Every structure is written in structure tokens, then in C-alpha cells.
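Task: encode each sequence below as C-alpha cells.

Item 1
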Amino acid sequence: MAFIVSIAGSDSSGGAGNQADVACIEALGAHALSVITAITAQDEHGVQHITHSDETTVQAQLDAVFSSFKVGAVKSGMLPKTVSIQALANTLQDQSKRRPYVLDPVMCASSGELLVQDESIQTMVQELFPLATVVTPNISEAKHLTGRNINTLKEIIDAGKEILKLGCRAVLITRGHAEIEPGMDILLDSRSNGIPYYIHGRYIADRSPRGTGCTYASAIACGLASQLTLYDAIQNAKRFITLAIANAYRVESDYWLLNHQVAAREL
């Protein structure tokens, strides 16, 4: 049994954040461990309230999971405060606790609310990017990280190269722009001389469920914990997230939730 740590905010709707991570990890046959960085109240209208976890609370959770379990991989999402980021960095810098690490640089909720301040983003880049196996920004997050306009395939690739310079081993830019193949993501690995890899998947246009980035990153972490190469872990995760979207269920008129259980059965 693989043990995967999700370090993320709690989402009361269960659609994103730690709840999406746990649903993904458990559906893929691993055991999910949780470190909660914030408690959010969310509904179909967006984020209604946020309470941040303090440094002591985050560190205590990290100490508990790493002391009691043989962690196979780490996935982080919402890291709203610099103290949380520093606690995670201090933990992962300990060589005895180094594991494959998937960093989803969450900045905004799906509904558009800002979740992380610029100071925290800068600390995340400085402290955590050098520890990450792969960073998984969407187009909007890649724009924020690089300060670039991203409207073409070349601009996506150039942005990926800029993000590699921030210290991570690899970057997967997700939710490709309409100018390129819908549903295609771009992977750049520092060990491959900047050659882009194209991750293809079916594009499902009639729904936009919450928690897709959380789930995608968690599925990659599951693959890495199973000793897959980064490329194979991403390919498997792409198939999984595509199936989870295809089988998503509607809660309100335009409010969809991913179906992790059916996706796992159909893999």
C-alpha cells in the first residue's frame, strides 16, 4: 500500500482541495494522508470564508504523518501563508524525508477568488520549487509565475522554460490554450534539454468540474509513488482526470463534481 501526503486546503464542498486529493488517491488504491493548510467554506457560488492554519498546526501534521508512515510521495496544493510554506520546506529538506514531490501552485479558486498572496507565491518559488519533482501550473498560474502573455504554443513552451529556471526539475503546464489542441498539456523536463513533451487527452467542452488541477496532481503523485517514470505517471494521470471529467455529475445548473470512483474503474 502506497502512502501519499496531500498538503492542501480543506474544501467544504468536497469538490477541490484536500477532499479532491483524498478522493483521487483512495480511488487509485493508495492511502491518503492529510496536512490541512486552511479551512475554506465553499459552495456553488465560490469561496465564502477562509481560516488559515498556523505554523504550529501545519508542522504538527507534517511531523505526525512522516513519523508514522512510510510516505511514498508528496502533493501540495493551496499554501496560503509563508509560515506553512517554510514548515513544508524544512520538512522536505530533511534528506530522510525527501520523496517524489508534485507541487500544484494553487493561486486562485475555480470561481476566481484569490487564495494566495504575492508574498507567499514568492516564498513558494524560492523554497519549494527546488524541491519539486514537477510543478503543475495551469495557463493562468504560468502567466503569474513568468509575467508573460501566453496565447500560443510557442509562448507556452517559452513560459515552461522560464519556470524551469526557477529551480524545479520539470514543469507540466495544463489546460492548453484554444490555439493548440484542446485537452493537450505541455511537459518540459530539465533533464531533456528543454524538449517539450505533448500530453494528449480528450477535451470535454460541455462541463468544467472543480478540482481538476488537484486531482491531476494527486494522480501524478500516485504514479510516482508506484515507481513510474515522471512521463508515465503523467500519462496515466491524464487518462484518469479525463475519465473523471467525462463521468462528472451535475449538482446545480453549471456546477459539476468529478467522479473519481468511476474513473478508476474505467482506467
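Item 2
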Amino acid sequence: MRIEDMSIDQLLELNQYICRRIDELWDQENLQALSQLRVGLKVTFEGREGPVLGIVTKINRKSVIVLAEDGTKQYKVSPEL
């Protein structure tokens, strides 16, 4: 079936399936990235002011808390860093 021939209801249903699948894929990517991280691990990521070197202090389901190496700032970042 061509997308141009679909009704609004069909398009909305298709959109729900697509969004659900995207969420599943993001969750899989996050789990994969989280499995590589450990508390105490030194990491780098791109912050607003450039590269940040820090230490993982906490691992949440969808984010990671990183303490900057100088200890002055804490960041909540994506598991993909």
C-alpha cells in the first residue's frame, strides 16, 4: 500500500508503530552503552564549553552522572557519552 493512498487513521496507526519501534531501538542502544560503563570509570564527552573529562559517579536507567575531573561540576549525560 502506498502512503499516499492511506487514510488519516491508517497514517496515525502507522505513526504509532514507527514511534514505538524507534523507542525500542533507542532503549537497546542505551542498554548496550550502559553495559560498557561502571561507577569510577574515567570518561570524556563533549560539553557546552568543549571536551569534559570526568568520572562516572552514578548510572541511571537512561542517563549517567559524571563528576568533572576538577570536582567542581556534575553532569547528567546520555549513556552514549
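Check on item 2: The longest strand covers residues 50-59. The chain has one domain: 3-77.
End of task.
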